[in-house]
Amino acid sequence: MTPSKTKQGFPVYEEDSLRQPARKTLAFLLGLTAFLLLLFLGIAYLVPYYGFGRIHSQLPWLMGIITGTLGGIILAAFVLLILVTLLGHDVPLSLKLRGAVLRFLLPVLIVVGKLLGFRKEEVQHAFVAVNNELVMAQCRNGHPPRNILLLMPHCLQNSECRVKITYNVENCKRCGKCPIKDLLELSTKYHVDLAVATGGTIARRIVIERRPDLIIAVACERDLTSGIQDTTPLPVYGIFNQRPFGPCFNTRVAIDRVESILKEVTALRGDH
Residues 178, 240: one domain? Predict the structure, then answer.
């Protein structure tokens, strides 16, 4: 992947240029999901409305207050999420809400998107693009990461390689047949940790052991979106891997894109 132009001294890639459409897609799906939830809530109240009156004359009013309060909370939460999505940075009270809600909301957004003809991958790409923008905004606004972890999938390693690197990536012989050699060089150049995981369980253990302030993760759509959800509120900048030979086999990553992100975040913490 090659940069198309530069912005504030850092390359801008084709994937970065899709952020604005991604914002609109995610904001639209959030708005529609909020509408459907409020509609369901209204129906759930109206259907048994007359039954409430038979139990007690004041019960319909009480249930109306409860339903209205719940609906107001849902509406306020989704308005905040849509604002965050469109603005590209967090607003007051939104950070914890974003982490708590998006951990459980993405599967719902995927279902709603499918009803409208969006492919699952389109929703996942929109989610990751907006997430990345929010992560970078958080880093730029007075929270530069000190401890950065490059977290890579095992499928980047050449399938014919017999060297075990999942527990110690320094075992790599740096033959250059896969991207691990280049990633090791970036790890040394920018003074960041590099780890290779075979799956979500190992990845979570690595995160717990290393305790990073920022993760730059490479994976497929499924693993990347689930990883971002699992590690919330820890910031994860996601980069999709390239699969010229199909999934989970001799995959690739745009090394120049990884270095571009590293260069920016390490500059923010004053390393370069």
Answer: yes
State pLDDT tens for residues 122-173.
899 888 888 888 888 888 877 789 999 999 999 999 999 999 998 899 999 9
172 shares its domain with 233: yes
In a domain, residue 1? The reply is no
Tokens of 58: 């004041």
pTM of the model: 0.78
Segments forming the whole domain that contains residue 66: 10-129
| Model pLDDT, residue 8 | 41
Question: In CATH, what number is assigned to the domain containing residue 164?
Answer: 3.40.50
Q: Please tell me the distance from the alpha carbon of residue 5 to that of residue 12, in angstroms, as a whole number.
A: 5
Kind and range of the H or E element at 215?
strand 214-219
Angle, alpha carbons 188-192-197 (nearest 5°): 100
> Considering only CA atoms, which of 270, 236, 217, 267 is closest in space to residue 9?
267
When divided into structural domains, the chain yields a total of 2
Residue 38 lies in a domain: yes
Q: At what angle do helices 59-87 and 94-115 cross, to 10 degrees?
A: 90
Q: What pLDDT is attached to residue 10? A: 35
Whether residues 156 and 261 fall in one domain: yes
In angstroms, rounded to a whole number, what is the distance separating the alpha carbons of residues 83 and 78? Answer: 8
Q: What is the pLDDT of residues 56-74, one digit of tens each?
A: 666 666 767 877 888 887 7
